[in-house]
Write the C-alpha cells for this entry.
Amino acid sequence: MDKNFKFSPLFWPIKLKGDVIYILDETLLPHKEKYVKAKNYSQACLAIRQMRTRAVGQVLLVMYIFLMVIKSNKGKKNISPILVKVAKAINSTRPTLSFKYLTNMVLDWDKTGVPLDKAILGFLDMLKNARIKQAKEAASLIKDGDVILTHCNVSGLLPLIAGFAKSKGRVVSFFVTETRPYLQGSRLTAWELMRAGFDVTIITDNMVAQVMEEGKINKVIVGSDNLAQNGDIANKIGTYQIGLIAKYFKIPFYVLCAPTSGAKTGKDIKIEIRPDKELTIYQGVHLAPKGSKAYYPAFDITPNNLITKHIYLEVKNG
C-alpha cells in the first residue's frame, strides 16, 4: 500500500478520553467532521439509536461504553450488576444488530475474573488487525480495471481494500448507491473513497439493474450487519435486490461479514422498523406532504444462495 495512505476516519470513529466517549457524528458528514460527547452509557446508547455512528462504529462504541463504565466505577468491589444493566441497555438499542455477542463476551470475562479493561483493549486491538486482514482478503479478489458496486457504507474498509489493490498495481473504481433514506452511500462511502483518491460514480438505488445491463459493473462488495449461521445476511435495505440483480447478470456478489450471530437463518433476524419521519423528512426538510404515512424497514435479508463469497471477520472470544 502507498506509504502516504491513511485510514479513513470511519475505520475507527470512536475515541475514549478520560471518562468521556467521543463519537464521530456520521449524520453530519461530509459537511462537518464533528465528534459528539457521551458522558454516560445512556447518552452512548442514544447515539446508537439515532445512528450517529453505525456499522463498526457501533461495535467500537459498545466496547468503549464498558470501558467508560469500568473507569467511572474504579475502586468498587463488585460492578457486575452495573455491567448487566448496561448490557441490557445496549442490547435494546437496535433489534437487527447482534450486540449480544459483544455484551455476553464482556459479561463472561467479568465472571472469570480477568481484568476487564485489558480484555476489552485486547479485543479492540484484535478487531483492528482482523479488519485489515479482511480488507487484504477482499483486495485479493480484485483485478486490474475492476468497477465495483457497493451499497451503504462499510466503515473505512472500501478505501482500505482499494488501497491494497492499488499497492499491487491494480486500478479500481466504484459505483456507489445513494442508499436512501440516510444517504450513507453518497454522504459517507463516496466521501471516504474520494478523499483517498479513488474514482467514484454515485447512482440512485433504483438504477442498479440499468447500470448492470449497460455492463458498467463487474463486481459487487457490500457489508453485513448480521450474519446468520446458514450464511444469510442482514444488511442495509436495498442489498437484497442488488443480490438478485447481480445473480441475474452473473456478477460476483461479495459480502464483508460480521461474526456469526445466534440466528440460524435470515428468517430468525428481526428487522428494525425505523420511524416514519426518517423517510419523509431529511435534515428538517419535508420530502413528502405533512401527515404522509411511510414504512421504513432499515434492513433486508439477502439469502446465502445469492452470495458468491463471504469474507469473514476473524475475531475470537477472548
